[in-house]
């Protein structure tokens, strides 16, 4: 029987014998699980011991592995478990070093950013170049707004002249998505986050921020990121994108604080990297003109 952070498990003592397991729903939202064990024969005037095992407790992987092989799989990291398990191992080691799950989350986010730095840099460089040529793009859009064929041809010519891949900013992000989703499930599923304090008012990383500070910071960082990216040329798409920081702020207000902390740190690091790359490109552009 599974809850978010806890499990009740009947564990067979003799794996060579057949056990019959069953479950049932009782009144008043109560549930029942049981097992019919293999028969035991005790002769007259003899004594015997019948032993069965049950585990009731938190889903701590190292404890579950000791109870029975495979019981640790009750910690469900989803389809990306093969990425999530090593991530949890790193997170656990960082916690041993810092003795604080909040700082462990921050450090693992920094490590991931460093690992993906070349990919992120390529994506941000592509977006910075797109931002640089955006005035020209808007100009040709206005000039050829009645002729889609000429508009596409003129846009492709700009991409060719400036050596810009319009999809260059997307691919590096897509490569990183599985890792970040895996980390999301690690932070969501790990009982270690339950009632784990970080600092100041954040005394439970598994519960939402009681004062909504982290979600607000996350929304602000998302807004800044949008300003660093080239604005969509489609007015409707631009309006939708402008609403996203507000929508995500409301959405993340109900997320566990540990998840929001990860997202805030990731956004801040992304802003710093993107700003640095944009600034270096602008400087190189000015030096080439002079």
Key features of this structure:
290 residues; mainly alpha; two-stranded antiparallel sheet; 4 strands
Write a structural description.
This protein is mainly α and 290 residues long. Helix content is 58%, strand content 9%. The protein has helices at residues 61-67, 81-98, 101-115, 117-132, 134-143, 148-162, 171-189, 213-228, 235-252, 257-289, and strands at 6-11, 20-26, 30-36, 53-58. It has a two-stranded antiparallel ribbon with strand order 1-4. It has a two-stranded antiparallel ribbon with strand order 2-3. A hairpin with a 3-residue loop joins β2 and β3 (30-36). The chain is elongated and about 100 Å long. The relative contact order is 0.11.
Produce the secondary structure layout.
Layout: E1 6-11, E2 20-26, E3 30-36, E4 53-58, H1 61-67, H2 81-98, H3 101-115, H4 117-132, H5 134-143, H6 148-162, H7 171-189, H8 213-228, H9 235-252, H10 257-289
Antiparallel strand pairs: 1-4, 2-3
Helix pairs in contact: 2-3, 2-7, 3-10, 4-7, 4-10, 5-6, 8-9, 8-10
Q: What share of residues is helical?
A: 55-70%
Low-confidence stretches: 286-290
* Elements, N to C (H/E): EEEEHHHHHHHHHH
Give the N-terminus to C-terminus distance in angstroms: 71 Å
Strand residue content: 5-15%
- State the shape: elongated
Structure annotation, total helices: 10
Class inferred from helices and paired strands: mainly alpha
Q: Major β-sheet, in short?
A: 2 strands, antiparallel
**Total count of strands:** 4
Radius of gyration: 27 Å
